[in-house]
Amino acid sequence: MRLHHWIGALVLVGMTAGCALAQTEEMGPTEAEVYKTVALAAAVAFVTAVSIVGAAYAVGRIGSAAIGAAAEKPEMLTRSLVFVALAEGLAILGFAVAIMLMAKM
Question: FRET label pair with 72: which of 38, 47, 49, 90, CA 20 to 30 Å apart?
């Protein structure tokens, strides 16, 4: 008779533990995890937008000055294109930072 009690108790404990595990799996992410994900997504969007807008502004200003300089002295064109490439590197750097932030999600 005692063996039946032990088996019944083990079954009851197993069912209770199974229900508890099922509840924790169904709950999903906590509120803090959701806020962290939203904050990281906002940071990625901000970094990408600011770096691209800054690079576009710099390329516009430097590119127009480079074309103006090349109109007066054609040998200045290659030297001024280096500065345009440096300004474009700002957008690539911002994109790399955004990728690293996305890796934390």
Answer: 90
